[in-house]
Amino acid sequence: MTEAMDPGTPDDREDRYRRLIDTGIALSTMRNHHQLLEKILLEAKRFALADGGTIYLTTEDGNALRFEIMRNDTLGIALGGTTGAAIPYPPIPLFGEDGQPNHRNISSSAALSGTTIAITDAYDVERFDFSGTRAFDARTGYRSRSFLTVPLKNHNGEVVGVIQLINARTGDGTVIPFPDEIVPLIEALASQAAVALDNQMLIEAQKKLFRSLIQMIAGAIDAKSPYTGGHCRRVPELAAMLARAAHEARDGPLASFTLTEDEWYELSVASGLHDCGKVTTPEYVVDKATKLETLYNRIHEIRTRFEVVKRDAEIDYLRAVLAGGNPETLAAARDARLRQFDDDFAFVATCNIGSEFMDPERIERLKRIAGITWLRTLDDTLGLSEEETVRKGGAGDKAVPPVVEPLLADRPEHRIPHHKPPLAPDNPWGFTIKQPPLEFNLGELYNLSVRAGTLTAEERYHINDHMVQTIIMLEALPFPSTLKRVPEWAGGHHEKMDGTGYPKGLARDQMSIPARLLAVADIFEALTARDRPYKKRKTVSEAIAIMANMVRNHHIDPDLFALFVTAGVYRQYAEAFLLPDQLDEVDIAAYLKP
User: Fold this and answer.
1) How far, in Å, CA of 49 to CA of 172, rounded?
2) Which of 25, 112, 220, 323 sits most deeply, having the most CB atoms within 10 A of its CB?
């Protein structure tokens, strides 16, 4: 195959084998892709005393070899690898346009055949097309003579790439063919390199798959609600910005905070999955815009009842006239009654919006309106599901129509029991969040009497329960040691520094910095989100003012909030994700006052 050379003394051979073993160990521990490629090529050049070398990897579709790294000592070429310099050559096709194997190129031929190819002098070979090599030599004045091209085979025997060495040299710099005794060493190194590369590519493929799964889950959560779309995508972006500022802090309380490469990935996973428990939250609860809303706004049922009592008023008037009453007096009474019904319905409709605080006087008026009755003449147990029938008390225990009923009602069928047992006080996750007696209470008067906002205590529990479900879901996953803190980091963004948050009631000193950091990111994103039509989006200064108040109330971490504003993280995020009219000026000094 090549000219014979002195294989060297036993000590030389032993030294080579020791270096080969040491190199294999080093390759197995390297995790940076570019550093790994560089290590493989430099060690191969060192073993073979080669002047230059190139590593190609197969493309994902398996149809070509792409340049990954190139080194040439004489020409001072250092492309790819850790240099960051791109290699200006297109991939080498493994197959021609007619689908035939490309054996004219030495690298593609080695990849296709899975065998090592050694060339004594490229200028004396007709089997392979070296026209590109000769053109390169003509441009540079270099002479590419001896070649050793070795396929990189993984543990399955699949070729994942090719390593090509050029111009073996003697001690005085004379170019010689690659010695026969060197070929097995380079092949052994190539085998070790292929396994290391394959393992690394498998790990990266798993990470890519996991990232895609995270994005899929986040996308499903965002798609589930038109009002929170993008939240699961934006919070990780903001969390990364704040983490970067903390990582780069050189003084202050966060100066010692750093993240390793593994921890950066851990943070990206935690932030991407921080709301994964929302897949269990009913959509109407997440999006509940009115107090009577479930799968639809039940104000329409109440409006229909008002229409019925208004018709009854008309009927009562006509009957009284037919009975000989004074039409004018009766009409005046009827009109007053109709006006009162209109006014009462408008009041109920206003209560349903939830924009005004329900003081005791308003609740009392609701109760008075609930005392108005109407006549139901149809059987209200017909057409129900089995579950609804059970909640209603069973078909055998029903009032026979016609039945007089209140205009607003809290009925037994409105009370929906829990479908699963409550969390025990000594639950394994340490949750302290309290479960209400019912899973849902759909009572009309009960819902309309909610003092602020639109959510009942039961619905608020379900909103908060997404954190419980997030932690349960994440702790059920078999995370490797490098991701073991994902549940804690993701599950703490609704905790408060004074221990009044949920779901565990953790205080500041019980939480890690990444968990506290995610809370800041989650709150700022929610305050400034521009895709939630049920609430007015905040300007940057409004959001910062609210968060400063949360710091004073010991709800969010003061050190991270200070860094958030002083390092300009809020503005970096705002310029990337918010609308121009939200980017107003922020008086940072005012918000940092004690």
Assistant:
1) 11
2) 112
498 and 392 within one domain: no
Over the stretch 404-431, which tens digit does the pLDDT of each residue have?
999 999 998 999 999 888 888 899 999 9
The residue type at 511: M
**SS3 assignment, position 96:** coil
Question: What is the rounded distance in angstroms from the CA atom of residue 44 to the CA atom of residue 48?
Answer: 6
Measured CA distances, 480 to 10, 204, 266, 484, 485 (Å): 45, 14, 10, 6, 10
Residue 417 has which token pair? 């029991």
Rounded CA-CA distance 334/2 in Å is: 115
Q: Is the pTM of this model over 0.85?
A: no
CA separation, residue 250 to residues 109, 400, 571 (Å): 54, 78, 21
Q: Which of 390, 416, 442 is the last residue of a domain?
A: 416
Backbone φ and ψ of 56, nearest 5°: -115, 145
> What does each C-alpha distance from 454 to 279, 286, 460 come to in angstroms?
21, 11, 9
pLDDT band at 95 (very low <50, low <70, confident <90, very high): very high
Domain that holds residue 377: 299-416
71 bridge partner residues: 53, 78
Q: Are residues 51 and 196 in the same domain?
A: yes
Q: Can you tell me the distance from the alpha carbon of 503 to that of 497, in angstroms, rounded to the nearest whole number?
A: 13
Q: Is residue 433 part of a domain?
A: no
> What is the predicted pLDDT for the residue at 542?
95
173: left (phi over 0), alpha (psi -120 to 50) or beta: left
- 277-to-57, 218, 420 alpha-carbon distances in Å: 40, 10, 17
Mean pLDDT, all residues of the chain: 89
Between strands 159-169 and 147-153, the pairing is antiparallel
User: How many residues are listed for the chain in this entry?
Assistant: 594
Residues 506 and 581 both lie in one domain: yes
For residue 314, being part of any structural domain is answered with: yes
Q: What is the pLDDT of residues 107-121, one digit of tens each?
A: 999 999 999 999 999
Rounded distance, CA 519 to CA 498, Å?
A: 14
What are the tens digits of pLDDT across the range 420-470?
888 888 999 999 999 999 999 999 999 999 999 999 999 999 999 999 999
Give the HSE-up count for residue 477: Cα atoms under 13 Å, Cβ half-sphere: 19
